[in-house]
Specification:
The chain is 33% helix and 31% strand. It is globular. By secondary structure, it is α/β, with parallel strands linked by helices. The chain is built from 10 helices and 14 strands. It folds into 2 domains: 178 residues, Rossmann fold, CATH 3.40.50.300; 64 residues. Helix 5 runs parallel beside helix 6 and helix 8 crosses helix 10. The strands form 3 sheets. Strands 6-7-8-3-9-10 form a 6-stranded mixed sheet, sandwiched between helices. The structure holds adenosine-5'-diphosphate (ADP). Adenosine-5'-diphosphate (ADP) binds next to helix 1.
Length: 287
């Protein structure tokens, strides 16, 4: 199970949306992290064969991406703007999609759907109308439709946006369960999504690849660069001009800062262990 991307490029007119992307994705959960507009959706739409690339090569399990039919059998996709048949019940919607996917036998469809509903924890909602589902339930239904045809690769675009914290955690765990023996690509601009689920990641910005590798190694790269320090309120502006500030917390007359700096920024600053957010911010700053 692997995806190999070599020198991928994509343009819309004169605008280069993806440039010189080289990536190797193996079994497990893979995070695709980057700010809005970085090119994540474009990359995923190319992988799912929905849009063509302009440059480079992509192979999925050694099958060239130009072989759309074979590639589509391998991939399940949950787009960001996923929505289906609001007036159907959950069961009816899946049954219809299963029919479209070519499962003609009603009993086989039933068996498959019941299995999926149980997998995504929607057994108790099979008669609920799609429009009455919560955001988290809709995303879980989205996963059910994405894995209807037993894909070995699942691609999900910004799935946690708009979910409350409990649903977000639940959804992440669901994805992690699915990543056993499969590739799950999770695209997000939320650093925390990657921190808690992915072993490997790629960071995109402005269509370019800033980093690819283990989450652990990204953290190691930021080791020694993250500091906390208490400063006076009136010093904030000048510190802001000089350093990349990650967070500020008011503590009485003082402000507790967390910042990125190669060297010790102040005599009373303390070096702290980087979080993924710190490492990501450091990476963004280096551009
Ligand atoms: P992300 O998913 O990281 O937010 P996208 O892949 O959606 O980023 O977009 C990357 C860039 O490509 C953006 O600047 C966006 O405006 C541009 N873009 C995406 N689709 C099109 C299109 N069909 N035509 C022109 N520009 C596009």
């Amino acid at each position: 199970m692997n995806i190999t991307i070599n020198n991928l490029g994509k343009s819309y007119g004169k605008k280069e949306v993806l440039k010189e992307i080289n990536l190797e994705i193996e079994e497990g959960m893979f995070g695709l992290l980057g700010p809005n507009g970085a090119g994540k959706t474009t990359l995923m739409r190319i992988l799912t064969t929905l849009i063509p690339k302009n440059q480079g090569n992509i192979k999925i399990n050694n099958i060239d991406i130009s072989n759309k039919k074979e590639i589509r059998k391998t991939i399940g996709y949950l787009p960001q703007d996923f929505s289906i048949y609001p007036t159907m019940s959950v069961y009816e919607a899946l049954d219809y999609l299963a029919l479209l996917a070519g499962i003609k036998n009603r009993n086989i469809r039933k068996e498959r759907i019941e299995y999926l509903l149980q997998k995504v924890n929607l057994e108790n909602h099979k008669n609920t109308k799609v429009r009455a589902l919560s955001g988290g339930m809709k995303r879980r239904l989205g996963i059910a439709q994405a894995i209807l045809h037993h894909p070995k690769i699942i691609i999900v675009d910004e799935p946690t946006a708009g979910l409350d914290p409990e649903e977000r955690i639940r959804f992440r765990n669901l994805l992690r369960d699915f990543s056993e023996g499969r590739i799950v690509i999770l695209s997000t601009h939320i650093v925390e999504d990657v921190e808690f689920t992915c072993e490997n990641l790629a960071v995109l910005n402005n269509g370019g690849l800033l980093y690819t590798g283990k989450v652990k190694e990204l953290l190691q790269d930021a080791e020694g660069y993250v500091w906390t320090v208490n400063i006076k309120r009136e010093e904030l502006d000048s510190v802001r001009n000089e350093y990349q500030i990650i967070s500020t917390v008011s503590e009485g007359d003082l402000i507790k800062l967390r910042l990125i700096s190669k060297d010790k920024p102040f005599e009373n600053a303390n070096s702290v262990k980087p979080s993924i957010e710190d490492a990501y911010m450091k990476l963004m700053k280096e551009v």
